[in-house]
Design goal:
By secondary structure, the protein is of the alpha/beta class. It is about 40% helix and about 35% strand. It contains three helices and four strands; from the N terminus they run E-E-H-E-H-E-H. Helix 1 links the parallel strand 2 and strand 3.
Length: about 100
Amino acid sequence: MNLKVEKNDAKATVFISGNIDIPGAEDLKKTLAGLTEENLTDVVIDFTGVTFIGSSGIGKLLLFYKNFTAKGGSLSIINLSDEIIALFKAIKLDKLFNI
């Protein structure tokens, strides 16, 4: 899995490609935790290159959502594949995340 972060003022975009498996989820957690410490108001996570997300990856997204929105931040997830959208809808994450 590859992660790239672009920042513009108070907004950050996280570009992810590959599979978000257990090792990838740990990398994602570290990257997102670093963003929580910054003075950002908006984070967009771009799933254009993501082909799989496991339960550990979903857990890391939920943890970031909880911590970031508690500080008043806004989180969006964009460019999800049809399979990942179906997964998010099945476990009601489409109600939580702005997708």
